[in-house]
């Protein structure tokens, strides 16, 4: 891999050097998405650790949970924007556009969620994510009150905390090693809601 198309500051294994389970995941991603996310390739250097991370990440972000997919991706983009993590802000910005069919709001959230047109529930989740990301030592029980006022259950609050925690960790891995987002993410779900293909 040349320096112009590097996806990580560390070495990246090829098909022959990757763990068997990782290769299967690459093949599944290629079949489902049409490409292999660079984060799958960049973390494959330590195959067992990557697969353990992916199992939990996939459960939190992609499976049916207590929060909606759009809410989980909203948290991902807010946290990634605050941490200035290029890979995660770009890739999960694409996912947020996909789940909301609203590219304007998704792009605005990535820069400053306070400027986005959000519901009160969404804004409460964003404010909570911001405090937990930027000043975790200042968290108090009272920080849960705005979430409960918006009707979030304890299970939903716990899931929000887990998603926020996951992205703070993943942002740091991605930023520390210079992960580069796939070009495909920049183009995904860019049509306005009334221009989406049927």
UniProtKB/TrEMBL annotation:
A molecular-function term among this protein's GO annotations: peroxiredoxin activity
Pfam families recorded: CMD
Metal-binding as UniProt keyword: no
Gene3D superfamilies named in the record: AhpD-like
Keywords (A to Z) from UniProt: Oxidoreductase, Peroxidase
Domain Carboxymuconolactone decarboxylase-like residue range list: 49-130
Superkingdom of this protein's organism: Bacteria
SUPFAM superfamilies according to UniProt: AhpD-like
Name this polypeptide is given: Alkylhydroperoxidase
Organism: Deinococcus ficus
């Amino acid at each position: 891999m040349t320096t112009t198309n590097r996806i990580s500051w560390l070495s990246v294994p090829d098909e022959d050097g990757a763990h068997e389970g990782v290769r299967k995941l690459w093949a599944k991603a290629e079949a489902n998405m049409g490409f292999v996310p660079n984060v799958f390739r960049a973390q494959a250097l330590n195959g067992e650790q990557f697969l353990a991370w992916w199992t939990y990440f996939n459960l939190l972000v992609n499976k049916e949970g207590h929060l909606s997919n759009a809410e989980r991706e909203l948290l991902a983009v807010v946290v990634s924007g605050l941490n200035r993590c290029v890979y995660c802000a770009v890739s999960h910005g694409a996912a947020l556009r996909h789940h909301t069919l609203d590219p304007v709001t998704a792009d605005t959230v990535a820069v400053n969620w306070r400027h986005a047109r959000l519901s009160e529930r969404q804004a409460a989740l964003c404010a909570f994510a911001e405090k937990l990301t930027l000043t975790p030592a200042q968290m108090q029980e009272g920080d849960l009150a705005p979430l409960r006022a918006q009707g979030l259950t304890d299970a939903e609050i716990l899931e929000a905390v887990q998603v926020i925690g996951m992205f703070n960790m993943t942002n740091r891995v991605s930023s520390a090693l210079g992960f580069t987002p796939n070009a495909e993410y920049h183009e995904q779900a860019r049509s306005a809601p009334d221009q989406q293909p049927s």
